[in-house]
Amino acid sequence: MAHVETAKPLSGLLNGLAQRVYYKNSDVTEELLRNEFYPEVSRDEFKALHEKMRGLLKAIAAADMDPAQLEAFLTAQTRRQGGGGVSADQAAALTRFWKSQRGQVRESLLAGSRWEPSLRGLTWRVDLQAASRGGAAPSGPVALMELELGGTGQDSEFVCLEFDEGKVTQVLKEMADIQRSVDGLVHSTQSF
Length: 192
Hints:
Largest sheet: 3 strands, antiparallel
Strand content: 5-15%
C-alpha cells in the first residue's frame, strides 16, 4: 500500500472524513473521496484505507487527544504488526491534520451533544403588591422569571413565568430533590 501513502491525498482524505463525520457535509461521500484523491487505487484497497483512517480519527477525536497523547497513540500504532497499524507518513499526516482541526472537531462534537433549544439567559425579580385604595390586603410576593431560549443560529425566544410563594417553595423543593439525585449518581459512580 506504499503508493497510497503520499501526503496530499491522505490530507485530503482526512479533511474529507472530517467534513462528512464532524461537520455533517453530506455531499462528501466515500466514492467522492476515492475519485478525488485515490482514483488509481482499487475500491477494496481504498475502502480499507478509508475505514482505517476513519477509525483512527474517531479514536483521536473521542479522546480529544492533546499533542503528547496523540504522539503516544500514533507511536503505538506505527509499531503494530500487520495491516492494523499506520506508517510513519500516515502518522505524520494524522498529526498535521489533528493539529489544525482539533478545535473545530471538538466544537462540532460539543455542538452535537447540546440540547436544543438551550437556555441562553435568565432574569428574575420579586414583586410585592402594595395595599390597594379599596383597602384590599396585598396578595403576597410574586416572583417573575424570564427565560431566554434559542437554538444555534436562531433568534431568541422569551418565556415569562409567574410564581406565587407556594409555587416558589414547590420549585425549590423539586430542585433540591434533583440535586440529591445528581449527588447520589455522582457518589455511586465515584465508588467504582
